[in-house]
Design a protein that fits this description.
The protein is mainly beta. The protein contains 2 helices and 34 strands.
């Protein structure tokens, strides 16, 4: 299968019989109850034990494919597998220790705005960093779950797996159907069904240790391949490991996820527009201002949509080209308020991390057509009171 949002424990045996031979990813079962939130490091050895971190995410042990002991140490930013006894039987992996944002078998992360309809999501920026080991058989995968309904329990219709790493002989469910460029990277694409839900897997050609991206890019590719629809719902976003043998030392060292909701559209694999709701501070503004040529109308307009929590934030930036010609290649300049620092970004290369900052297009979103938009965003930290960036320019021209 593929993992977390699989059938309940009572159906595990039937589900596993539907899995293919060793090396085919199958799904884990769900943590049915949540433990108290973690403050200091928390050790979890309970089969389906879970806890929360950062007041935003759920970490779960989720051992379902073996009776042997598995323990994880939960930190403030992720988790590490500290004990991984036994070897998987019945074809599938032993477990899916993972961290997630959203709802998984009625266990919803604090303040989440999921499930949310894909058509209403303007962007869903996320990042994860993994630590790998050399003495285990496993895959490191990011799970994105989609369903025709706003489902908070049970098995979803379609699972998207983004494989950051894999060891031989592990391979995805189904068969290889080609390649794709998604979110600026090349992937081998596999599709199949594990007997419980459809699975589409995007496999990296070499191991990725850390990466941030927009979940919408993979959702859009899945829609284009007929495995989902824009009217469906995103229910959860998850990152972890599927181990078959050993696994002690595997770790998610950092994880972030947010979902921006509001009148956006999708172009060329990137998302535009949007506002933020659910479990955090929201708001938007426009900054700067000037006119171009002799028309007296602005050449660009910038909208900032932040989502904040104690000491951290994400900012989704929508750049509208209000001029008469396309911007073929773009650089957006802006100034971060004192005390703010950028830690990761999506849909753009952003540097430096503080002060006067420039965001540059990626290969797949280099054009902003006349009357069109592009969006990018970043996650950062702040001290004191959050304030929005200011002084936006597009290729050197001030924006309103």
């Amino acid at each position: 299968m593929s993992r977390l949002q699989r059938a309940f424990r009572s159906t595990r045996k039937a589900m596993l019989s539907a899995a293919v031979a060793l090396g085919v990813a199958v799904g884990g079962l769900v943590a049915l109850t949540a433990a108290p939130a973690a403050h200091a490091d928390t050790r979890i050895c309970d089969q389906y034990g879970s806890t929360t971190i950062q007041g935003r995410y759920v970490v779960q042990n989720n051992r379902w494919g073996t009776t042997a002991t598995q323990c994880i140490n939960v930190t403030g930013s992720g988790f590490q597998v500290t004990q991984a006894d036994g070897t998987a039987t019945n074809g599938g992996p032993k477990s899916y220790p993972s961290v997630f944002y959203g709802c998984h078998y009625t266990n919803c992360s604090p303040g989440t705005n999921l499930p949310a309809q894909l058509s209403a999501i303007s962007s869903a920026p996320t990042s994860v960093s993994f630590n790998y080991v050399g003495n285990a058989v496993y895959d490191a995968a990011y799970d994105i779950w989609l369903d025709p309904t706003a489902k908070k329990d049970g098995v979803n219709k379609t699972e998207i797996m983004v494989w950051y790493n894999q060891t031989s002989p592990v391979q995805p469910v189904g068969s290889r159907v080609g390649t794709a460029n998604v979110a600026g990277r090349s992937w081998t694409v596999w599709t199949g069904n594990n007997g419980s839900n459809d699975v589409i897997s995007f496999v990296a050609p070499s191991a990725i240790g850390s990466w941030n991206f927009d979940v919408k890019a993979f959702a859009n590719e899945t829609i284009s391949r007929g495995l989902a629809q824009n009217s469906w719902y995103l229910t959860s976003i998850q990152a972890g490991f599927e181990p078959w043998q050993n696994g002690a030392g595997l770790a998610v060292t950092s994880f972030s996820s947010s979902v921006n909701i509001g009148g956006g559209s999708t172009t060329g694999g990137s998302t535009t527009g949007g506002s933020t709701t659910g479990g955090s501070t929201t708001g938007g503004t426009t900054t700067g201002g000037s006119t171009t040529g002799g028309t007296g109308s602005p050449s660009c307009k910038v909208t900032v949509t932040p989502q904040t929590w104690a000491g951290g934030y994400t900012a989704n930036i929508t750049v509208a080209n209000t001029g008469p010609t396309a911007a073929n290649g773009w650089k957006v300049g802006f100034t971060l308020p004192s005390g703010q620092s950028i830690t990761s970004a999506w849909n753009a290369t952003v540097s430096p991390s503080s002060g006067s900052v420039t965001a540059s297009n990626l290969s797949y979103n280099a054009q902003i057509p006349a009357g069109g938009t592009q969006s990018f965003g970043f996650q950062g930290t702040y001290s004191g009171t959050y304030a929005q960036p200011a002084g936006f320019t597009l290729n050197g021209t001030s924006c309103s």
